[in-house]
Design a protein that fits this description.
Helices cover 48% and strands 19% of the residues. Helix 2 (49-65) crosses helix 10. It starts with a helix and ends in a 6-residue tail after the last helix. The strands form two sheets. A six-stranded mixed sheet has the order 2-1-3-10-4-11. A five-stranded mixed sheet has the order 7-6-8-5-9, with helices on both faces. The protein has helices at residues 4-35, 49-65, 80-88, 101-110, 118-121, 146-155, 170-182, 194-203, 213-221, 269-283, 286-294, 304-324, and strands at 38-42, 69-73, 95-100, 122-131, 133-137, 161-164, 187-190, 208-212, 226-230, 257-264, 298-303. It has two domains: 36-130 and 257-324, Bordetella uptake gene, domain 1 (D-Maltodextrin-Binding Protein, domain 2); 133-248, D-Maltodextrin-Binding Protein, domain 2. The protein is built from twelve helices and eleven strands. It is an alpha/beta fold and 330 residues long. This is Bug family tripartite tricarboxylate transporter substrate binding protein.
């Protein structure tokens, strides 16, 4: 017994030392992993609604999850550049993509080679908000309803320009529907995002524009523009005085747009669930909800499976309108 005890003590001491060393080596690795910021790719410029919402969400997730979340703006091509960047990112949970429906629903149907396929290259994490879009006019048009605007355009034959935040977008196809309904020569003028388009609208460089209410609401409240029609089946609670397109006879724009979070295909399911749970908790916080609603967005969390079904439905609906317009993928 006396000879075995020292050996036993030495073996236990050696094991404890090895364990201590292994934990000491593991701790920096874990710390390094958690110290790396999670990138949230955004396909539109700083100052716009998508960017602002992404920054609000990133701030709350950083506080909630104890890890830094940073917005990485990869602007251009209606979000295509950011979408391709997500496809190329490692599926390790360190890169996410905050996208509106334009990038994941419209771009794949209007470009011959978009460079990504949402159905196979992305994993839907969760829907964050629903967003109505609206037609806004400069006060100089004197228009308060679509009928007023149509009359103004017909009398000002060279003033039918309608700014839109991206080429081959829902607002552009809506401009075509609008012209048909009004019997007026409306023509879409594409911009690189809603923010620069709204800047030109309030500056009088263009008389009208269609983009999300998140881009229009602050300027509407300031009296710098007037929203005369909104999408959806019901009026927006954020702008109850503005009638819907459908109320004014324009059919085909009853669906709401959305903003949602995606991860690269192959991201482990537990990582996806962790982000889903964190996002659900974050969106329940009154402060964040107030900020997003202040941008003209309706907080409406939905898990990835629900988001996937909404994408499929919108792809079918807008696909029909795109083909009916005669648009050819470019």
């Amino acid at each position: 017994m006396s000879t075995s005890c020292p050996n036993t003590r030495r073996r236990l001491l050696g094991a404890a030392t090895a364990l201590t060393l292994s934990l000491g080596l593991a701790a920096p690795a874990l710390a390094q992993s958690s110290a790396q910021p999670v990138r949230i790719l955004v396909g539109f410029p700083a100052g716009g609604g998508v960017d602002a919402a992404s920054r609000h969400v990133a701030e709350v997730l950083s506080q909630q999850m104890g890890q830094s979340f940073v917005v990485d703006n990869r602007t251009g091509a209606g979000g295509q550049i950011a979408a391709v960047a997500l496809k190329q990112a490692a599926p390790n949970g360190q890169t996410l993509f905050m996208s509106n429906d334009h990038t994941v629903v419209i771009v794949p149907q209007t470009m011959k080679s978009p460079g990504f396929n949402p159905a196979t290259d992305f994993v839907p994490v969760a829907r964050v908000v629903q967003i109505a879009f609206g037609l806004a006019v400069h006060p100089s048009t004197q228009a308060h309803r679509l009928a007023d605007y149509g009359k103004w355009v017909r009398e000002q034959a060279d003033r039918g320009a309608v700014g839109v935040p991206a080429p081959a977008s829902v607002p552009e196809f809506t401009t075509g529907l609008l012209g048909q309904h009004l019997g007026a020569a409306t023509n879409a003028v594409p911009y690189r995002g809603g923010a620069p388009m709204v800047a030109d609208l309030i500056g009088g460089q263009i008389p009208a524009g269609i983009t999300s209410l998140s881009e229009l609401l602050p300027q509407q409240k300031a009296g710098k523009l007037r929203v005369i029609a909104v999408s959806g089946t019901q009026r927006s609670a954020l702008l109850p005085d503005a009638p819907t397109f459908a109320e004014q006879g324009v059919k085909g724009v009853e669906q709401s747009n959305f903003l949602a979070l995606y991860a690269p295909a192959g991201t482990p399911a537990p990582v996806i669930k962790r982000y889903q749970d964190a996002l659900r908790e974050a969106l329940a916080q009154p402060a964040l909800r107030e900020k997003l609603e202040g941008l003209g967005m309706q907080v409406d969390f939905a898990a990835g499976d629900v988001l996937g079904r909404q994408m499929t439905q919108m792809t079918e609906t807008w696909g029909q309108l795109i083909r009916a317009s005669g648009f050819k993928p470019q």
